[in-house]
Amino acid sequence: MPDPALHLLAIPGSLRSGSFNRALARTLPQLAPDGVRVDVWELHDVPLYNSDLDEDGQRPDSVVDLKGDIEAADGLILVSPEYNFGVPGVLKNAIDWASRPGFRSPMAGKPTGIMGASAGLSGTMRAQEQLKLNLLGMVAQVFPHPGVAVRKAGDKVHDGHLTDEDTRSFVKGYLEEFTAWVRRVGG
Amino acid sequence: MPDPALHLLAIPGSLRSGSFNRALARTLPQLAPDGVRVDVWELHDVPLYNSDLDEDGQRPDSVVDLKGDIEAADGLILVSPEYNFGVPGVLKNAIDWASRPGFRSPMAGKPTGIMGASAGLSGTMRAQEQLKLNLLGMVAQVFPHPGVAVRKAGDKVHDGHLTDEDTRSFVKGYLEEFTAWVRRVGG
Question: What CATH number should be reported for the domain holding residue B90?
């Protein structure tokens, strides 16, 4: 009997049109196991967090949509560059919105994986460390895996997609492990 | 002979109207040593970072203003809540803009102190740790001090200002040490 269908949400942490991380996120649907759907959620329209607006009827539409889509997904994959040894404000801002109300938010218990790509050799590892702590702070379930860190992404991404075969194979394996884990730990 | 005048910029990391951190920032001008001016810079108008817009002639006006004001200041004080064990996206986003171009930005070498206030007992210490790494990532000079961590701020802030006498005295002492350090290390 096949595994039941699974629905993942991939959120790129960059808004840049030629972003390696958006390219990596957009490649995930091609690499996902059978029966696993991956949607990509872009953050362009999510405004700065302001708790004055964080009440029913006051929340920006994009935030209502983001929270609903995270709630409905079986698992989340954050695909992000590293800025200044840390998580880009753009991504942190979005998950700050999604993390409310504390401990009862759509992020609470959400199975979450992390990927990142960089032009240089850091592979976003420092940002991934900070992000893991942030996710634990909102009581998400963090996929216990070293993560996907795509280095020298300029050589591996073309025309808005991940093209390097070794990296595609690694990401494919990650998605297999991630989805098996989501099936074990998920709601 | 009196010390030369010094100009500090305080940036609150929260947009909430009743924010304890905005209140703390707004109190700094009252507590600064003689000859030290503190201006408060609010982040409401700083849009999400997008490197497609991070070029001369493309940058949003608020970003141009922010970078110019950081450049012109002798020192910077970031006054921020903690969200999810980390720096609020709102603040990280602003310093992501200010940190470009890498290592030659207005943040490079900028003497920077950190303060935070929380309703509970954390005092924002985890966010301050992450923020110190982010600042080092943009080669800012981080004030070597345990920082100001105002706990149970609901008891210490009234009418938009820090009112607790012990805390005011502590912050006053911090500002004396900070300004002495800025005079030593500043450009």
Answer: 3.40.50.360
In 3D, which of A128, A35, A33 has the Cα closest to residue A78? A128
For residues B139 and B110, give the distance between their C-alpha atoms in angstroms, rounded to a whole number. Answer: 8
Cβ neighbour number for residue A166 with a 10 Å cutoff: 8
* CB-CB neighbours of A57 under 10 Å: 6
Question: In terms of Cα–Cα distance, which of A131, A48, A133, A41 is closest to A97?
Answer: A48
Name every chain A residue with its beta carbon within 8 A of the beta carbon of B48.
15, 43-44, 46, 48, 89-90, 93
Q: Cβ of A88 under 8 Å from any chain B Cβ?
A: yes
Using CB atoms and an 8 Å cut-off, which of residues 29-48 of chain A contact chain B? 43-44, 46, 48
Q: Are A93 and B17 inside 8 Å of each other by CB?
A: no
pLDDT digits (tens, 9 = 90+) for A44-101: 999 999 999 999 999 999 999 999 999 999 999 999 999 999 999 999 999 999 999 9
Report the domain count for chain B.
1
Domain that holds residue B153: 6-185
The answer to whether position A29 is within a domain reads: yes
* Nearby residues of B173 by Cβ (< 8 Å), 6 or more positions away: none
Q: What is the pTM of this model?
A: 0.97
The ipTM assigned to this model is 0.96
pLDDT digits (tens, 9 = 90+) for B56-66: 999 999 999 99
From the CA of A5, how many Å to the nearest CA of chain B? 31
Give how far Cα A175 sits from Cα of A6, A77, A124, B169, Å. Answer: 12, 10, 19, 54
Scanning the structure block, which residue is given the tokens 């450049």?
B71
- Does B1 reside within a domain? no
For residues B167 and B144, what is the distance between their CA atoms, to the nearest angstrom? 20
Instruction: Look at residue B70 and tell me if it is in a domain.
Output: yes
